[in-house]
Amino acid sequence: MSDEFVQALADLEEERAIEMAKERLDAGEAPMAVLDDLKKGMAIVGDRYDEEEYFIPDLMYAGDIIDQISDLLVDEMEMEDGEKLGTIVLGTVKDDIHDIGKDLVFFMFDLNGFEVIDLGVDVPIETFVEAVEENDPDIIALSGFLTAAFDSMKETVEALEAAGLVEAFNEDGLRDGTKIMIGGGQITDDVRNYVRADGYETDAPSGVRLAKEWLKTVEAAQ
User: Fold this and answer.
1) How far is CA 148 from CA 122, 152, 157, 161, in A?
2) CA 205, CA 222: separation in Å to the nearest integer?
3) Which of 48, 92, 214, 222 could make a disulfide contact with 53, Cβ separation 3.0–4.6 Å?
4) 24: which residues sit within 8 A by CB, 6+ positions away?
């Protein structure tokens, strides 16, 4: 059923995909296996958008499917209880409307016990600045799929530095205090350095692991 599920997601067959997710979970299959296939299906959706087979309304429809299946997974997965691990301000930067990757990141961080302030997509720089001022997050997560997003990420980081909300970038090591993570399918270490981010990841589970490592480093230094 795994391959059929991935195909149903890729073809945006909403009812069939959700029913298959329910059947897999009811049969006792591990939620993480369903989540892995969800990511595979949505990766194909992203590829079809790049190839101009899908368009913006299709991406929005895919986001709705993600939300519904994520709700099913949350019901089955053991949530982190107690005090939140940390706070994250998350958003897709301006001039980029991709929300598939961001929504998966939101789901994984929320599942792992983080408080996530989701600013949405095509987020103006000043909105990031206001959200960081208001919430004093441990991590700022900037999402972007298009190469044009790299400049928006860089401008957002520069605005945060200018406002004194994060320390100036030091390519030799992590910033003290609030850290900046960037993510997206085309992110590399060269992009991370260009954007002046502390780290990057290309998938949601790896982003959660990196965030937890950063928080452990902060705790050890205190």
Assistant:
1) 12, 7, 15, 21
2) 26
3) 48
4) 1, 5, 33, 34
Closest CA to 65 of 93, 97, 104, 30: 104
Which among 159, 132, 156, 134 is positioned nearest to 143, based on CA atoms?
156
Which residues are CB-neighbours of 112 under 8 A, at least 6 positions away? 80, 85, 208, 212
Q: Which residues contact 20 (CB under 8 A, 6 or more apart)?
A: 1, 4, 5, 8
Helix, strand, coil in percent for the chain, rounding step 5: 55, 10, 30
The structure tokens 């929504």 sit at 103
Please enumerate, as own/partner, the contacts of 23-27 that have beta carbons within 8 Å and a separation of 24 or more.
25/72, 25/73, 25/76
Other CB atoms within 10 A of residue 113 CB:
16
- What is the pTM assigned to this prediction? 0.74
Over the stretch 136-192, which tens digit does the pLDDT of each residue have?
A: 999 999 998 878 889 999 999 999 999 999 998 876 777 888 999 998 878 899 999
Task: Note whether 18 and 65 are within 8 A (CB).
Answer: yes
**For the chain, how big is the Rg over CA atoms in Å?**
18
The residue count of the chain comes to 222
